[in-house]
Each structure stands twice: as structure tokens, then as C-alpha cells.
Amino acid sequence: MTIKTFVAIGDSFTEGLDDFRPDGTVRGWADRVAELLADRHGSVAYANLAVRGKVLSQIVANQVPFAIAARPDLIAFSAGGNDILRPGSDPDAVAVRFEAALAELCTSGARILVVTGMDPGRTPVLRLVRGKAAIFNEHLRAIAARHGCEVIDTWGLTPLRDPRAWGRDRVHLSSHGHELVARLVARQLGIDAGNPYEDWPDLAPPNTRRDDVQWAREFLLPWLGRRLRGRSTGDGYLPKRPDLEPLSGASEMAYR
Predict the structure, then answer these.
(1) CB neighbours of 146 closer than 8 A, spacing ≥ 6?
(2) Hey, how many other C-beta atoms are within 10 angstroms of the C-beta on 222?
(3) Where are the beta strands (DSSP E) in the chain?
(4) What number of other Cβ atoms are within 10 A of residue 88's Cβ?
(5) Cα gap 149→112, rounded to integer Å
């Protein structure tokens, strides 16, 4: 299948935190996939509507209608992670809302990739919601099967369990982590972009207590503060690529 138009929707994972280009702009796995598509097909029209911190209801309200109206060849849909992180969240209820959104997206006629959540088992604090995240992922696999969509299983992408696959905040992927996800998506699309399951060459040094204290001070406490104030990291942010725009691949492929 020739993919000439690609729309990515979601939150910070799809926006691309913490994968930065030399000029400081955010890249991420979806951009990397768009670049691979452009390299393969000569060009691709690409939109990335994802915004950090957004919950499923916001993605459904602000991103899903555009994705349907654009009638692209390919849609990547990742959402619900921020809902699962909220205290008292119910993965079964989030899954019901996700399926309703996916049913709407299917009316576009696009090929749809449903992206599962990653395994937070080795991340402080986030590991507390590992059980709920696993339940939600099981729902996503079943929902995708019911609607004839494809699954990108990032939970099973074992190299992401290495600390080096994650950025300094231990919540968002590093550049190499995003590269591994891009390879996984590329493999699903029939593009040879390298082995997504490539092992790390050596063991990562363990985090020290000092590292954990610094992380809590720099990232955990501000995150808790935003939750208490009812604020989000996405407040004031707009999609980085809100319209389907041509991407030749030449300029951004240089960063690979």
C-alpha cells in the first residue's frame, strides 16, 4: 500500500518528547515514521496533532474530527495514557471511550495503527499503575481486532525496559527510544528501518539514591503540583504540525 497521507494523534508520546532536533524542536517516533514514508514514496503529506498532557476526551474533541475529515491513508492513534495515570481511573471505562473514538476514526477509511502503552514497570511512581496499564492494553488489542485495525505493541518492545531508552524525566522516551518505536511501526508498514528489538550492547549503570532524589525534586514534585492545581503540561501548547503539509524527507532525514 502506498501511503501518501499520514495523520498522527495523541499526547506527548506522539508529539515526540524527549526527542529533540539540534535546533530544539521536538521530533519523535511519528516524525521519524513520516520521514521514512517520504523517503520511500518521494513525499508524504503529514500532520501531527498530538499535544503533551492531553487526555482522551481532549484528543477526541480536538484531534479526531480533523483526522476523519482529512481522509488520510494512515492514522496512528495513541491515547488514554494520561487518563490511566489519574488517581481512581478505571481502565475499563477508558477503554469504552477509546473504542467509541476508534469507531469514529474508522469512518475515514484510513489504515489505522492502534499504539499500546509502554511498560512502566521500571519507572518510579509510574510502576504503581502498571496493572491498570496492562489491563488497558489488553482492551486495546481486543478493540483493534474488533475494528480490523493493526496494533503497534510498544509494551512488548523489550529494549524500552532499559533506562537509556528514556529521557531525564523517566516518563518520555529518549531519542533512541523513539527510534526503536519508529522501527517497530516501520516494520508493520513493510519498511526495513532496522531491528526494533536490537539489544543494548552493555548493561546500563543503575540509578543511585542521589539520582532518584534529584529526579523527584526536578520532575516528580512539579508533576504532583500541577495535578493538585488542576493544570497540565499541555496548557498553552498547540499541535506542532496542525495541517497536512508535504514532507520531502530530505531536510529531516539528515538528523537520523
Answers:
(1) 99
(2) 12
(3) 5-9, 44-48, 74-77, 111-115, 150-152, 241-247
(4) 4
(5) 5
Q: What domains appear along the chain, each with residue ranges and CATH number?
A: 5-203 (3.40.50.1110)
Phi-psi region of 71 (alpha: psi -120 to 50; beta: other; left: phi over 0): left
- The Cα 225–Cα 29 span in angstroms is 29
> d(Cα 66, Cα 90) in Å, to the nearest integer?
27
Nearest to 171 by CA among 217, 137, 215: 215
> Rounded to the nearest 5°, which phi and psi values hold at 228?
-65, -30
Task: Copy the grid coordinates of residue 176.
Answer: 533512541
Question: What's phi and psi for 168, nearest 5 deg?
Answer: -65, -30
pTM: 0.90
Backbone φ and ψ for 153, nearest 5 degrees, come out as: -90, 85
Q: SS3 for 209-253, per residue? A: HHHHHHHHHHHHHHHHHHHHHCCCCCCCCCCCEEEEEEECCHHHH
Separation CA 150–CA 3 (nearest Å): 15
Q: pLDDT tens digit string along 29-77? A: 999 999 999 999 889 999 999 999 999 999 999 999 999 999 999 999 9
Per-residue pLDDT tens over the stretch 109-132 = 999 999 999 998 877 777 889 999
State the average pLDDT over residues 128-150.
Answer: 97
CA 140/CA 186 separation, integer angstroms:
20
What are the residues whose beta carbons fall under 8 Å from the beta carbon of 11, sequence distance 6 or more? 50, 51, 52, 53, 54, 55, 59, 78, 79, 81, 82, 234
